[in-house]
Amino acid sequence: MVSKNETISKSSKGLIYKYYDSAKKLDRNNAQFGLMPEFSREKVLEAVRTDGTVIAGITTLVDKSIEYGWKIHGKDGKSKELKFDQSLKDLKFKKLMRQILYNLYTYNNVFIEIVRDGNGKVKELHLLETTQTEPVTDKHGKVVGYIQVVPDEDPSGFPSWTPEEVTHIAATRLTTNIWGELDIQSIYTSVLIKQYVYAYLGWLFGTNQFRGFHNIKNASDDQVKQFISYLKRSENDITKPLIAWGDVEYQILRDFKDGDSILSLINKCDDNILTLLQVPPVLMGKPGDSNRSNSDAQTMSLATRVSSIQKLCEDSFENDLFVKMGYKKVVLTFNPINKVGMTRLLENAERMKIMGFKDKKIE
């Protein structure tokens, strides 16, 4: 028979993903180095800033996440601490929530800094810059602190925080790495294709590759010069006649026949971006084949995506952020975004009351 002590492990013996490839405990200047994600955070920011579809899709997700608000209540149905509501208002938590969601949907990671006054009371909440903040861990994944990497600065002078001063929320973790996967890496390819297409179109129209030219046959140099003179005057006055000697052919420098295929390529990239973000095209003004049933299915998919992020935030707030703030008995719950589901829930509750169920049983 296995004893209780043999089944309980005090700490993981496993090493976190690529720990020795991306982090060191201390260097010769006694400076800590943090873990970095697999994909460049700067490229993520570039994709969001330079592509209208990406930023519009992320904004839609953020708006839907906070559209119906949230409520604060006590654990196990108990009354909440009234002073906590006022504390959140003083900390401008509604504004902070929007920033939190933007970072989660963009980077799949967010770092929330807890600032205390001299008496230990929380006086401010801030978001740390995701592109520069890195967790510092031991080889088993235990977080021992956080640092902010400042370009062109001595690592020994990097700003640092203890685990009690920062709450890190990671949305997607495929490996044991502390960082959540940067899902936008999949979107970045489509953004690059669009950038190449727009660069080509910019060169095409910017250099006027569609301008025409005249091919004059059997004419002397003087006759060609006279033709050019007449041509210039006719451009300023369309009533002036254009006189030429010999056979004149007018041709286009470049015949642009790829317009539809280029437009289709851009639309395909946009569709890929919205699919990866899980944002219905109909919400972005791209109806496509969005009939009634398809639109409902897309809306349900969006609700699933948003609800999963909301649940992650609820858990992180209740068991990490609020606890570090000194409030262990309060819970934040987002209001449902699925109106159809809420209607059915209320209908079922009404039926249960008619059948004789008590309120506590219904809850």
SSE diagram, text form:
Layout: H1 4-7, H2 19-22, H3 41-50, H4 52-66, E1 70-74, H5 82-90, H6 93-107, E2 109-116, E3 122-127, E4 133-137, E5 143-148, E6 160-161, E7 166-170, H7 184-206, E8 212-217, H8 221-236, E9 247-252, H9 259-277, H10 292-325, E10 330-334, H11 339-354, H12 359-362
Antiparallel strand pairs: 1-10, 2-3, 2-7, 4-5, 5-6, 8-9
Helix pairs in contact: 3-7, 4-6, 4-9, 4-10, 7-9
Strand content: 5-15%
Shape: elongated
Question: What would the average pLDDT be, to the nearest integer?
Answer: 79
Report helical residue fraction.
40-55%
Q: How many beta-strand elements?
A: 10
Helix/sheet category:
alpha+beta
Rg for CA atoms:
31 Å
Largest sheet: 3 strands, antiparallel
Written as H for each helix and E for each strand, in order along the chain, the element string is HHHHEHHEEEEEEHEHEHHEHH
Order of adjacent strands in the largest pleated sheet: 3-2-7
The first-to-last residue Cα distance is 42 Å
Low-pLDDT segments = 1-10, 23-31
Question: How many distinct helices?
Answer: 12
Quick gist of this model?
This protein is of the alpha+beta class and 363 residues long. It has helices at residues 4-7, 19-22, 41-50, 52-66, 82-90, 93-107, 184-206, 221-236, 259-277, 292-325, 339-354, 359-362, and strands at residues 70-74, 109-116, 122-127, 133-137, 143-148, 160-161, 166-170, 212-217, 247-252, 330-334.
